[in-house]
UniProtKB/TrEMBL annotation:
Protein name, as recorded: Arogenate dehydratase
Pfam families in UniProt: PDT
Keyword annotations: Amino-acid biosynthesis, Aromatic amino acid biosynthesis, Chloroplast, Lyase, Phenylalanine biosynthesis, Plastid, Transit peptide
Function: Converts the prephenate produced from the shikimate-chorismate pathway into phenylalanine.
Length: 390
């Protein structure tokens, strides 16, 4: 919304009642202040002991200000300078203060120049992106309060699911609070002066190598895995490897001083990776914009149980956007003893589902209540706004 601020000055305590929300700011504006109020106007108004309405970008926004002169409530008694007292911690101290990510620390896997870093910056443009060597380190960094959030890849249009992160989602107790869709354009990078034909080997993250399968096959090079795409570029640069290239972003080329030998080398022009934003606390589900909910569950063995589980969404017109199954590591096999037919061993699975509805909607709540009739275990991993911008 466009309300820029409410300035409090002089001997009045303005009490704001606003249709939507108020932003409080208690300092005097300096010239060039981002607030739209001119200093002279401020001076003259405040000397008249008047309240100062903030010029608002949205003229339709109405707010009413009621003045209470401090004298009436005994200013001496209440307005001693108490700034030396410690400020009590509030909920705001534990969470990101701004939606652009100012003051937010976001963990990602990889080194600067990785696509995961780009995803973190897409979600929180002003954040401090904190590199982690492994996915699990990013989960732990959030749990241990070293960072506020983690941004981790979960699926890609060419390579499919990033299974490791599905498994980690269940093992850790973090909540999905958002998603980021990022267009991934891979480049072939090499040392300055090196040509494509000089390359015998190419390093990258296994997902990136898989996404460039056709190009790399044509190039006829040996492929080797690295922890992340930018890490591969860094390795080539640090070791001055003339016969080795890296599949990584153009930004990684800039950071590590490599040349872009070929652009957009992924198998499909449109290559999108979806990332999840994880936090210690869930967000409050709303229904004012498109939301997604992610769940994980297990089912009883038996004919048609998965069909029934999926039907709870279909009958409420809830669209599923993703279904993934993973083996249950702790109990991979279910042994069923049948006296007549002998002993049967079934693979046991966890089902992960993303559906397009908010937990604030009754139909989503009812679907999950219904699902619990068949599920032996169920957990809501998060309910979060859909990323609509690519
Ligand atoms: O290696 C990176 O740059 C990453 O951010 C990881 C990752 C992935 O794990 O999928 C992210 C996006 C691309 O799909 C390729 C690699």
């Amino acid at each position: 919304m466009a309300l820029k601020g409410v300035l409090i000055w002089g001997n009045y305590v303005p009490q704001l009642s606003c249709k939507t929300a108020g932003v409080h700011l208690t300092s005097k504006p300096s010239s060039g202040d981002s607030l739209n109020l001119k200093r002279e106007k401020w001076e003259s108004l405040s000397s008249q002991r008047a309240i100062i309405p903030v010029e608002d970008e949205n003229p339709s926004l109405e707010f009413k200000q009621i003045l209470v002169p401090i004298e009436e409530v005994d200013s001496k008694k209440f307005y001693r300078d108490l700034s030396f007292l410690p400020k009590p911690l509030s909920i705001a101290d534990f969470s990101a203060s701004n939606s652009d990510g100012t003051n937010v620390r976001v963990a990602y896997q990889g080194v600067p120049g990785a696509y995961s870093e780009a995803a973190a910056l897409k979600a929180y443009p002003e954040c401090e992106a904190v590199p982690c060597d492994q996915f699990e380190a990013a989960f732990k960094a959030v749990e241990l309060w070293l960072v506020d959030k983690a941004v981790l890849p979960i699926e890609n249009t060419l390579g499919g699911s990033i299974h490791r992160n599905y498994d980690l989602l269940l093992r850790h107790r973090l909540h999905i609070v958002g998603e980021v869709q990022l267009a991934v354009n891979h480049c072939l990078l090499g040392l300055p002066g090196v040509k494509k034909d000089d390359l015998k080997r190419v390093l990258s993250h296994p997902q990136a190598l898989a996404q460039c399968e056709m190009y790399l096959t044509k190039l006829g090079v040996v492929r080797e895995s690295a922890d992340d795409t930018a890490g591969a570029a860094q390795f080539v640069a640090l070791n001055r490897l003339k016969d080795t290239g890296a599949v990584a972003s153009a930004r990684a080329a800039d950071i590590y001083g490599l040349k872009v030998l070929a652009e957009k080398i992924q198998d499909d022009f449109e290559n999108i990776t979806r990332f999840l934003i994880l936090a210690r606390e869930p967000i409050i589900p709303k229904a004012d914009r498109p939301f997604k909910t992610s769940i994980v569950f297990t089912l009883e063995e038996g004919p048609g149980v998965l069909f029934k589980a999926l039907a709870v969404f279909a009958m409420r017109d809830i669209n599923l956007t993703k279904i993934e199954s993973r083996p249950q590591r702790k109990r991979p096999l279910r042994v069923v003893d049948d006296l007549n037919a002998g002993c049967a061993k079934y693979f046991d699975y966890l089902f992960y589902i993303d559906f397009e509805a908010s937990m604030a909607e009754e139909r989503a709540q009812n679907a999950l209540i219904h699902l619990q009739e068949f599920a032996t275990f169920m957990r809501v991993l998060g309910c979060y706004p859909m990323d609509m911008i690519l």
